[in-house]
Design a protein that fits this description.
Strand order of the largest sheet: 2-3-4-5-11-10-9-8
Radius of gyration: 26 Å
Low-confidence stretches: 24-28
Number of strands: 11
Shape: globular
CATH superfamily: CAP
Number of helices: 3
Distance between the termini: 87 Å
CATH architecture: 3-Layer(aba) Sandwich
Number of domains: 1
Structural class: alpha+beta
Helix content: 10-25%
CATH topology: Pathogenesis-related Protein p14a
């Protein structure tokens, strides 16, 4: 009887361990699931959208750290909360916005570091996909090329959205207001 107690204890511990591990099992997919953009809410770049006035943009981002460009078409730059540049047209309205994330009022849709698969899952298939490549090989002999950058282009409303990826990670985003009738 003395020898059976450790054996029984070992069996009980093994049963408890097996039971505990079966409760911890969870299926994990390769790609995280993100809600898709339905097109209802206006997209912004770091909170700024085409057509906003200089005062509205400053209200969202604060005072710019630098102003460049022509007097009638200024380019305002921010470094906080992120690297953002906004070009204004002659009427003082935002027409070209360069930043780090695409947002809708209640959440960030595309962020710096997101993969191409995540962007496509959220925004759908792009209207255009352009690749940037560099040669592979050593020295002066090129034996092929590798993709180092991708630009995904989408059109929502009267604006064109470009998402720049370097080595499968979003590096920046841009929105450009389309000229009247341009497609």
């Amino acid at each position: 009887m003395h020898r059976s107690q450790p054996t029984n204890l070992a069996l009980v511990l093994m049963a408890l361990t097996a039971f505990a591990f079966t409760g911890c099992h969870q299926e994990v997919s390769d790609a995280p699931q993100h809600p898709t953009y339905d097109g209802a809410a206006p997209l912004t770049v770091n909170g700024v959208r085409p057509g906003m006035t200089i005062a509205e943009v400053v209200g969202v981002l604060g005072e710019p750290v630098r102003t460049t460009g022509r007097t009638n078409q200024p380019v305002l730059n921010w470094t906080q909360p992120a690297q953002i540049a906004v070009t204004f047209d002659g009427a003082g309205r935002a027409e070209d916005i360069f930043g780090t994330s695409l947002k809708v009022p209640d959440r960030v849709l595309v962020w710096r570091g997101a993969s191409e698969a995540e962007v496509v899952q959220i925004l759908g298939k792009p209207d255009r996909r352009a690749k940037s490549t560099r040669p592979t090989g050593s020295g002066v002999i090129s034996i092929g090329s590798e993709v180092v950058g991708v630009t995904l282009t989408y059109r929502f409303g009267d604006a064109r959205f470009e998402i720049y990826l370097n080595e499968d990670a979003v590096s920046s985003v841009r929105v450009i207001k389309d000229a009247a009738g341009a497609r």
